[in-house]
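Chapter summary example.
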Amino acid sequence: MNALKKKQALQEIITETKLDVAMLNETRLTEPCIFQDFFSHQTLAIKRGGCASFASTHLHRKVKALGNYLLWTRIPMGCEQLHLLNVYIEPGQTQLLVTRVNRVLEVVDDIKK
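The structure predicted for these 113 residues follows.
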């Protein structure tokens, strides 16, 4: 996702298909990727992958990072909200995986409350 041509192609796809939300994993971004008319946030896990979320600004969507591996997008849907989590959990140490999975489950529990 670091090449300008890739960013332009993704912006074109998102715009042409009129996506409200796009979530990517294994981006390996080295700098933030900003698209016109979208809230965006990325985990800049350069060597290990990372994730990025883009949400259209026209319906007041919000994207927020929760740590360096978890992005949370909230979308108003009438009286309710749609919550989308984009998680990048790299392969590797089992204990790290367990810790991150448990953190994601905590966030889900908090959202449900």
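To summarize the output: The longest helix spans residues 94-112.
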